[in-house]
Each structure stands twice: as C-alpha cells, then as structure tokens.
Specification:
With 369 residues, this protein is α+β, with helices and mostly antiparallel strands. The chain is built from ten helices and 13 strands. Helix 1 packs antiparallel against helix 10, helix 2 packs parallel to helix 6 and helix 2 crosses helix 7. The strands form three sheets. The protein has a nine-stranded mixed β-sheet, with helices on both faces. A two-stranded antiparallel sheet has the order 4-7.
C-alpha cells in the first residue's frame, strides 16, 4: 500500500496535529455508549498511506484492527457488481439500455422493460427481495440458511414493479442481483469468475472473495451487535453470505478496498465514454446507510459532497459492520472507513449521525492533504 504511517497507537510527537485530532475522533467513537468495539480508517494520498484505528478487532484477544483483516463489506459489494457490468459494457457484451426482457427473458414479464442503467442507479422499481415476508421468515428462523443466490428474485417474482422504470430513485437489493444475473447471461460465466477476471485481477485484490457460507477467512475484524445489558455480541459469522450475494456478500480487507475504490472511482476499470454515463448523478439519492455530506447516485457509485469537496464511492451496512469507501475523481486520494457494529437510518441512527460527522472530517483531511 505504499509508505505507511500509523498514527493510531504510535504515540509520541510523530503524529501531526491533524493525525492526533482524527485519532481522538476514533477513540470517541469506540467510547460512545453503544459504539463499535473497533474502527479502522485508511487514508491514502498517492503512495502515502495513513492507518488510523481505535478499539479492538476482537474483544476476546484485544488485538488492534489491521488493514489486512477480513470483514463483510455489505452493500459496497454493489460497486463491485457495477464494475463488472460496466466493464462488460465496454467490451460490447452488455449495453446500458439492455432490458431484463432481452437478457433475462425468464424473469417476470412485468419487469421486462427495466434496463441495466436503471438497475445500476436504483430507478428500476424492482421490489426488494430482502424485505419480502418469505425471505425475512427464513433468515429470521435460520440466519445461516444457505440460499440459492441465483434464485433470490423468486421471493418477489409474483410482485409488480414498485413504480414505472426510471420514474424515481428507490434503493433495492434486487437491482444488483439482477445485474449479476445479466452479467452471467451475457457471458455464460459465473459471476464469481467475472469478479476475479474483471475486478480482482486488474486491481491486485488478493484478499477479496464472494463466499456462499457464513465463515470468514482468518484473520478477520469481528463484527458485533451491542446489547445494552450483555455488551458486545459477536455476529461476525451469524449470517450466510448467500442471501446477499451480488448485493452485499463480498468479503474484503481495508487494504483491498483501498485499491478497489482508487481504481473504480478513478476510472481505471472503464472507458471515459462509459464513465461519463456512470457519473450522471441523481441528486439527494441516499446510499444505505447515508454517507458523509450530501449524496447523489450515479451508476453503482455515489457522490458525497462534503463541506470540503466531493468524493465518490459507496457505503454498506450489515450485521456487525458499517462501511464507507470513497476516493477523489482521479483516484489519487482515498478513504476506507470501517466500524464493527451496524448503523443505518433504522439501526442505531444516533451513532450513524456521529459516524457521518467523523467520516466528513476524514474526507476533509483527505482533500486538504
């Protein structure tokens, strides 16, 4: 990752004033009632890397978080499915205006007019399979249930669209399942293989994978649910990744995510022509959870406009984890920000507000460096 500086736990006078202030913000996060047991943030500018961390990667061992720890990246996986789709667009295997009906004729007729573009910017109107009663019933009874990931859309196959395609923005996990299925149909290859060829290999991601089960590779950053009475409850391996798949099942590390977002936001993976389409943004369209500042949605990428300027990336949340990856438009400067508990508008919203404030301060440090 280049020359590394680790202000966290380094001590002494080597920490610049900026570093000391950022480090204190992370300490405050883990000391907040209901806050995460651990947090790690990686700032990179060119070949210079700064790793900030507070708390622990594992409450039992007490070891600190590391940039090489595996973790669930949740909906940041949607940026990976976007990268696959946009690379296939560049190769002429898909078009942004290809429809579900053209590529996936076996899907419900009511969905056939939805385009790849609308799936990538969440204006498709597809009902969210992960909110369907049937899916929720299974996952509630057995969080480690192994789903057939390629059949997840069957949970909502009898439902009409929520609205006419392109009419408005509505975040839906179904969108990225459909994106992955379109990629498979267009190439005749498994989505996992496409990820390796089109994303992992070009960017040198050697610790990123899309598992089907609930196990995490060692070492991993443990994720927790904070119980007011019992304290942190380890939920790192509580849920099978098969129920999220292309919408949120990828496992990665802060180091790999840094390489990914620099390449993805910086345009290393797609042509200028395709990137021009990707960077057409819908204002006030929130990622889940919301990131720092004001948010606008592009094609599997979000623009986060802070008081110090804009960065481009994605957020994610799942049991035990909240994620942000972002970079400048040229990919030179980047931030990955990971905490080990879940926050969202409906899950610990007060902590989410604090996290977003801290994320914005890290973005400002990034843009002012």
């Amino acid at each position: 990752m280049g020359a590394a500086v680790q202000p966290a736990q380094a001590g002494g006078d080597r920490n610049p004033p900026r570093g000391a202030a950022l480090q204190q913000e992370l300490r405050d996060l883990v000391e907040t009632p209901g806050g995460p047991p651990g947090v790690i943030a990686v700032l990179r500018d060119g070949d210079r890397t700064e790793v900030y961390r507070a708390g622990v990667a594992d409450v039992e061992s007490g070891r600190p978080p590391r940039a090489t720890d595996h973790m669930r990246i949740a909906s940041v996986a949607k940026a990976f499915s976007g990268a696959v789709a946009l690379r296939l667009v560049d190769r002429g295997r898909l078009r942004l205006d290809d429809t579900i009906g053209e590529v996936l004729p076996g899907q419900p007729t009511a969905w056939h007019g939805v385009t790849l573009r609308q799936l990538l910017n969440h204006t498709s109107g597809l009902p969210d399979y992960s909110a369907s009663p049937g899916f929720v019933e299974i996952i509630s009874a057995d969080p480690r249930h192994r789903f057939d990931s390629r059949r997840l859309l069957e949970f909502v196959a009898d439902e009409d669209l929520e609205f006419s395609p392109g009419l408005r923005y509505q975040y839906s996990n179904s969108d990225n399942i459909a994106v992955a299925l379109m990629a498979e149909a267009a190439t005749g290859r498994r989505y996992e293989d496409l990820l390796r060829e089109l994303v992992y290999a070009p960017l040198g991601l050697d610790a990123t994978s899309l598992p089907q089960g609930y196990r995490l590779p060692e070492p991993f950053l443990h994720g927790y649910q904070i119980d007011p009475q019992a304290g942190p409850v380890d939920v790192s391996e509580a849920v099978s990744a098969s129920g999220a798949w292309a919408a949120g099942g990828i496992v990665s590390t802060p180091k790999d995510l840094t390489a990914f977002i620099r390449g993805y936001a910086g345009g290393a993976l797609v042509s200028d022509r395709t990137r021009e389409q990707q960077f057409r943004f819908i204002p006030d369209a929130l990622s889940q959870p919301p990131g720092p500042g004001r948010t606008a949605a592009g094609l599997a990428i979000y623009r986060y406009t802070t008081r110090c300027g804009a960065v481009y990336g994605h957020t994610g949340n799942t049991a035990g984890y909240t994620q942000l990856v972002a970079a400048t438009e040229d990919g030179r400067r980047s931030l990955t920000f990971s905490i080990t508990t879940q926050t969202a508008l409906g899950v610990n919203p007060d902590l989410l507000a604090q996290v977003r404030d801290v994320q914005e301060d890290f973005v400002c440090a990034l843009l002012r460096s």
